[in-house]
## 1
Amino acid sequence: MIEAPDLSLAALAPLLFVFGAACIGVLVEAFWPRESRHPVQVTVALVGTLGALVTTLLLTVDFEREITAAGALAVDGPALFLQATIAGLGALSLLLFAERALDPARSAFVVSAAVPAGSPRDRELLTVQRVQTEVYPLATFAIGGMMLFVAANDLLIMFVALEVLSLPLYLISGLARRRRLLSQEAAVKYFLLGAFASAFFLYGLALVYGATGSVRLGDIRSASLAGGTDVLLVLGLALLVVGLLFKASVAPFHTWTPDVYQGAPTPVTAFMAACTKVAAFGAILRLLYVAFGTAEWTWRPLVYAVAIVSMVVGAVLGLTQTDLKRMLAYSSIAHAGFLLTGVIGLGAAGDGSGLAATMFYLLTYGLTTLGAFAVLTLVRDGDGEATHLSQWAGLASRSPLVAAVMTLFLLALAGIPLTAGFTGKFAVFRAAIEEGAWPLALVALLASAVAAFFYLRVIVLMYFSPPAGAERGQGPTVGVPGMPTTIVLAITATATLALGIVPGSVLDLAERAAIFVG
Amino acid sequence: MTLTYYLVLAAILFTIGAVGVLVRRNAIVVFMCVELMLNSVNLTLVTFARATGTIDGQIMAFFVMVVAAAEVVVGLAIIMSIYRTRRSASVDDANLLKY
Amino acid sequence: MLSNYVPIVGLFALAAAFAIFSVTAAPYVGPRRYNRAKLAAYECGIEPVDQPLTGGRFPIKYYLTAMLFIVFDIEIVFLYPWAVHNEALGVFGLVEMVVFIVTVFIAYAYVWRRGGLEWD
């Protein structure tokens, strides 16, 4: 008789909520009449993600750290903090998906992905007001995968979660209603490179298993303590980290990021930029700290180096971009570098403030970048979103409010004081300096200064340039957002300001949460 | 220690797959190379299961197979959709996105 | 030791005998009706045809069926270990398997309702 594993249903509740909602979404897709499917799907997806958010928060009330599901799942401070972050950001992204007022055809997603782009049938469907509803279950599955990813205490579960979050993302990034070829191309690139990276992760898993005889993070830790570190283990760790850095879009594993961010539908880009980043860094933190915290010398130089490369590549190449979505993609690469600065700040004994700082930074970065992409969906021309920089010239005179909100987000991304970006950056840099990594913090400061230039350039363009196409009367229009996008903008803008001015309570929360189990 | 041969074989297969991803131009072939990498991992896992005397490696090979199948379906669907528009599955033709 | 294998040898003999009996008996007892299908290269599957107008490719439906087959077929690997060790896994294993099969059936219901199983 094999003992049944202990299964704490309470600890699993957030995950069950999301995956349950995703399964119900699939059933709705199968059985609900098409005409009224959209509101039902949106409701199911939102109930799932918000329910997960609430259950995660309920779990934090008198919770104790535990490892459940036969050691596969860790329920601890970082897991709950990041799960709540992912669920919240995911719900906001779903609201962006559900926006119906901006596009004349009422949705950012293609009606039928199976119809070849550019065919007569496709042109016919372009103006039809039918909406794609399959994106909601897909996105919900992705959110569930991300929430599992940050709580995985076992490399195999981590791999399965990685695929559960990636596969729906590959699909939904190819579902843009306009510029479909671009979108499909983004999906192919993302898929091929993503599958390549997950193969590396998997080979790393196999090597670590060979070296230690287990894939539980705790066992790996004790095995590396007992038997020292052999070549197999170090090689395995390197391959695992490569796979994760790819998902976190850290240079030099970033090449997919600009293309996919540009090609994917903007709500999906917002989702990827905010939630995938949180999930990937959650897994990186857990892997490096729980499994390899004792073999810290093996990964520190690697992370140190890629952090510098990522910051420099993101900041410098960001300068040369003329497309806003691409620019924000390079910004995301630079921010991945800043986040790795926080990972370095984890400290040799794990007592550094790096973990709390990184988690706080993930929250602020997710909110800000989600808001920035939400603003991008508002400015449109005849062929969807107007993302070329020149089209944003003089936007302030046309729509002061949109320009002001965008300015707030850009300032936050640049890390200007009184915004969330500043507090986040300050926290991770301080953590790195406390661990004696001041050269890294210095590079990070310089990279921030360079990156600030391209954010400020957009602001200058919006306020001090003559309006684009005004003389010909064909500039981009600023759409009036419907309820969902308005809610997203209001929440993200308020949070960006609030976390910049009074970050204390959330920082405290992150610090109290910053203890791993295992 | 004959198990080493299996590990070396798996490493060679993995390398062939990785090189294939980098040098081949047809998306389907690139994809087949990724599958080769996944299967070489399966061989590694099963070999290590034997070497360490634990059953976990074999179970993990099952999971890898299932995930690989899901990946095949998603990947073929994406490649097929772009092929039907372009009549080509070459990754060199996918060049709209650059700066 | 070897006597353990006697039933297997018996099974082989039985199978061979049945096959030989069927093949030899068929021409004598069965009716003979010739038609075009009997002369085709394969009795089932896709007809061998030379280059059609569409460029020598199978219809897209074929890929769809193949993909659906792969994704559902592979789930068997999880059923197999459970089936082998059913007794030892007990009620917990049974419950887990039911949950697993229900989720697979959700996917199946989706495919069925969206017309993934219809050929035309």
## 2
Amino acid sequence: MSKPSDLVQGTLDLLVLKILALQPLHGWALSQRLKQVSGEVLQVSDGSLYPALHKLEQQGWIRSEWKPTENNRRAKFYSLTRLGKRNLEKEAANWERISTAISQVVRLTEV
Amino acid sequence: MRLTNWVYTLPLRVRSLVWRKRQDADLDEELRDHIDRQIEENLARGMSEEEARVAALRAFGNFVMVRERTHAAWAWVSLERLRQYLLYAFRSARRSPLLSAVAILALSLGIGLNAGVFTLLNAMFLRPPTLHEPASFVQLCPRYSGWFTGADQNSSFTTEDFDAIRSRSQTLDQVAAWQQSAALPEHGSTRVNTLEVTCNYFHVLGVDRPLMGRLFAAGDCNRNAAARVAVLSEPYWRSQFSADPQIVGQTIHLNGIPLSVVGIVPADSANFMMGGVILPYTLQTQLDHSRNLLASPDTPWLSIAGRLRAGYTRADAQAELLAILSQQDRAYVMRKISAFNRKTSLVLTNGSFIENPGNHDIVIGLMVLILGPLALILLLACTNVTMLFLSRTIVRSGEIAIRLALGVRRRQLAVMLLMDSLLTVCIGGVLSLILAHRVPVVIMNMADRGQSDFVVLLRPDWRVFGYLAILVIAATAISALMPIRAAWKLDLLTALKGREGAATVRSRTTTTLIVVQIGLSFVLMCAAVFFGRLPGLIKGIDPGFETHHTLAVPLDVNTSATNRAKAVAFYRALEAKILAIPGVESFAYASLQPFNQFPPSEMRLPGQTKGSGQPASVDHVSTSFFSTFGIRILRGRVFLPGDVTSPDASTESVVSQGFAERFWPGSDPIGKSLVTGDDRRLTVVGVVADTRSERYGAIDGPRLYTVRSPTDVGGNLYVRFRGNSKPLEKAIRDAVRVLDSTQVVAPETIWEGLESNAEQAMSLARIVLAMASIALLMAVIGVYGVLSFAVNQRSREFGIKMVLGADRCTIFRSVILRAAKSIAMGLLFGVALAEPAMLLFIHLLARSPLPVHSVDVTVFAVSAVLLTAVSLSAMYLPAARAMRTDPMRALRTE
């Protein structure tokens, strides 16, 4: 179903943080970027992005702001907080460590 | 890290709780914006409008679920749910306003009474006296062992001990001492409580600012030249001197001593202050001629408290003071003042009554006895509330069943019902604060005539609020228990079908509720009947001697060897003056006072060894004692003036009937010999009737009378007279004053003493009576509520019975019979509760003259009859309603 597994949920947070670290984005733009960078590998529905976004906001890692966009519309833009930046570094390092470990294990079994 | 997290997120969470609606709208807009943008994108890719919309929605996923999951990310979900429950509880309370009001009222009454009385007890017993830095305040409580009886005893300090502690202690910065006493003011006949204190007493207590004038200065306590000064407590000044602003500098008289008032100590300066008039302790010898405690090397009389010097702990002080006291002990034993091989141990307390080892047990007992019945009232209130919730739960059983069927967990349901009762209890608790504020004042006014002597500062502290919180939590839990059980046990299938088969379960519940209510109120009824009877008991007794025409004249004469000649002259002159007063028939001396308990001494038959004798009370009386008291002579003779040849040499004795029966059952006691505890040999010359002079209405134990020489001094003086007592009291008072201006006496007949005791018992009885009436009222409401509920639930059953041919009387009888069975069970339950309470009470009153017997059947019987009558009348209405059940209507609901 549309509920991502725990691993993916964890990585989803990381991806969102990473993307927002480059520039503030609104939800739709963020989902487009996500698809683009992950090369459609992550099979998550667009909607499941929002609980993740709101959870990150409640945790104080990102903040949101309504801003006007093209032709008289407005959208909710998300940006990284200082707390989020610090956590991104930590999570990224974490990910680095785990993924290396896992890929090493996987390679080991292939031999 | 966690903290910074909270700083960030707290406002967000609060916002999501408070501005819910806006948050919701925001989220909706955000999600719609996403879908719109996706549609535009799809259109741009060349899809048709319909295709673009469907594809966008598909990619988005379940809209409702996304929204719900985002909600869950927002705030404390559980808190959110609590809010809903509370709202729900509020709504259901509003739906039945009358019932809710009754429940809230009952609860606020219950909680308010409890909290109010606790505030009073807290101020009197639990709090340290000082308001200023209580942590450094210590009271020293000594305990003596090594007494020849082998028993340890809590004691106070001798003057020497106080001097040693004051001069040698390094851990205590300031050491103060005091003695509680009482003295007769100039024209009054009731004593005022006094506090004889060292001159730094107020300072140690943390009181440095008088309301007026000054407090004591160091010079006031000079042992060689005690200053005749006094400080009045504010309430005493207000009540006795009508708040006279010119009081400072005026002279008042206590026990005939002129004292100059130097200041007023404010009422709110200490948690409690035990005297109306505060005097330098050096005045003790002048106020009490009979004892010079100040110079006595072995009479403990002073209580001591001090302030810890900065840097020292209580343990340091304890170690140091123990060392000082063991030096004192050694010096004491070396001097061989008495046979007492003194060994002192010491406890340091915060100065509250309850921490004093001498009071600890009795205070605990008192608190249990006072708070116990009040807790019962609260329990009664809780059963009323239970009833309310239970009926609500049953009425809502259909709705609850639907909730359960839709997947609400039973635990959530329980929390929901708990919130229901929490809301009610909290409202009741808040309302109760008004009562809690008023109750202590009302009780103080009701119980205490001399309120101005013992000043208690009623100020709630953490203990009071803690107690209140415990009450609220307990009340919530107790009143929610039954409804939760009912909801828990709800049978889904039958409830959904709208037919309930659980009638038997419910009837057990209603029986339990009635039993509990009857039982609880029975205990309170017993207390009320018991106390209500006391004044009558005290006044209605026949003590076996004359009370209306016998005056007690309390004298306070220094009879020590140095002053003996003066004392003898005073007594003989007084006797002559009293006999000259018209109306006086005779006077007599006795060593025992009526309605006071004295330790008995050992009496042996000749040939018995020491320690194998029997206890008997010994009254050392003058020859005219029996005629003055009007005690009947049964056999032989009483004392004659010729019996006394020289002091301590007479061997004649008179025994009471009880004594004769105990020592020589079945034989003639006249002429028999006896040996006293101090090895004097006595011969019995007469037998007199038993009296009831130790406890009200109870025959005294074995009693022996010995005769005193007419040249003796001291003892209690009694005067027998004819006619009206008032002029005689005044004449004797004047006679004493003419002989010795420092003697102020307030003679009163034994009957007047009894009356004032009865009055005290009455004021206590009034409080208990008020409590019991409240309990009874709650029980009546409760029983009525339970039974109406039960009758409503059984209306279908009654309908069927009627259709099958039962007449209305049968229905009525069946309801009343079942209820009567619950009443009987409730009474049994009540007896089971009341008995241990009674035993505790007797234990506490062991040394008072109140006539309390182990199990008072009369009290139980009267309470049972009263309670049965009241609860049966409460049952009449519901039973009558059951009788009027319309079978057609009852069955149509099928």
